[in-house]
Amino acid sequence: MAPGNLTHVTEFILIGVSERPELQVPLFFIFLVIYMLTAAGNLGIITLTTVDSRLQTPMYFFLRHLAVINFGNSTVIAPKMLVNLLIRRKTTLYYECAIQLGGFLVFIVAEIFMLAVMAYDRYVAICNPLLYMVVMSRQVCLLLVSLTYFFSFFTAIVVTPCVFSVSYCSSNIINHFYCDNVPLLALSCSDTYIPETVVFFFSGTNLFFSMTIVLISYFNIILAILRIRSSEGRKKAFSTCASHMMAVTVFYGTLLFMYLQPRTNHSLDTDKMASVFYTLVIPMLNPVIYSFRNKDVKCAVKEFLKNPCRRFNLI
């Protein structure tokens, strides 16, 4: 890229997870395995919760959408990342970069709110079990999922053009493995106050509302569990909730670390490591944490593997 002030570039260069040549092939296989496990796990959940009659409750309805979101988020990031690990010139076109950022924002914001919806669903199921099917009716479930996707698309439509409205100078090298707003704004030679404010506002608002719902829901769930008289019942309930809360804590923790700190405090190399968790690792772990430890899902998997054709009504 020639030096001088550039208001528009035709392509960016993605540095990737590491610049060391000897790590490119090992990293390719590591992330290929992660992506394959993510795809298999989430597509498996989507299939099971669609075809199995026992998995048609609100909890599995939300779980199916979380699987769609996790698979979408990984697919926006992983394929391009894997290709770049095997080629020397790791370029991405300007509009391709914008589309990737927009897609990433859609799925990451959708996951933020879907986790809040799932926490609320568990709160109603545990704290108000007799009213569960009334409160979480089909209409309410569809409304909650629709609002989740609405907020995610709205965020992407506003933030993406704002990030790409800045000017670029002599460098078009993005110190990241995908097009994210933080490293993109770090490249700009123009005033980034408005884009940074927009990113901070949407990040802070989305995280605040979703985390408030999650914290209040799990707080009430824990209180309800403590009131269980049976020690074995409390232990079983805490075991399930602990894994959910750990997944939520890691997810929200990395997002807070990434997006709610001033630009001057950012270390892009550290941010890349945090990004690996919520774009690749957590989508791989969520099917295990939220479903495959569940007895109903285990039974559904066994029956599906015995006779998949019957489950799809092919025979």
Structural account:
Residues 1-7 have low confidence and may be disordered. The protein has helices at 24-51, 58-86, 94-127, 132-135, 138-163, 181-187, 193-226, 231-259, 268-292, 295-306, 308-311, and strands at residues 11-14, 91-93, 173-174. A three-stranded mixed β-sheet has the order 2-1-3. The termini are far apart. The chain has eleven helices and three strands, in the order βααβαααβαααααα. Helix 5 (138-163) packs antiparallel against helix 7 and helix 8 (231-259) packs antiparallel against helix 9. The radius of gyration is 21 Å and the shape is globular. It has 315 residues and is an all-alpha fold. The longest helix has 34 residues, at 94-127. The chain crosses the membrane at residues 27-49, 61-78, 98-120, 141-168, 207-226, 238-261, 273-292. One of its GO terms (molecular function) is olfactory receptor activity.
List key phrases describing it.
globular; 11 helices; 74% helix
Which regions have little confidence, pLDDT < 50, spanning 5+ residues?
1-7
Total beta strands:
3
**Radius of gyration from CA coordinates:** 21 Å
Alpha-beta classification: mainly alpha
Report the biggest beta sheet as strand number plus sense, adding barrel if it closes. Answer: 3 strands, mixed
Describe, in short, the structure shown.
The chain is mainly α and 315 residues long.
Q: What layout of secondary structure does this protein have?
A:
Layout: E1 11-14, H1 24-51, H2 58-86, E2 91-93, H3 94-127, H4 132-135, H5 138-163, E3 173-174, H6 181-187, H7 193-226, H8 231-259, H9 268-292, H10 295-306, H11 308-311
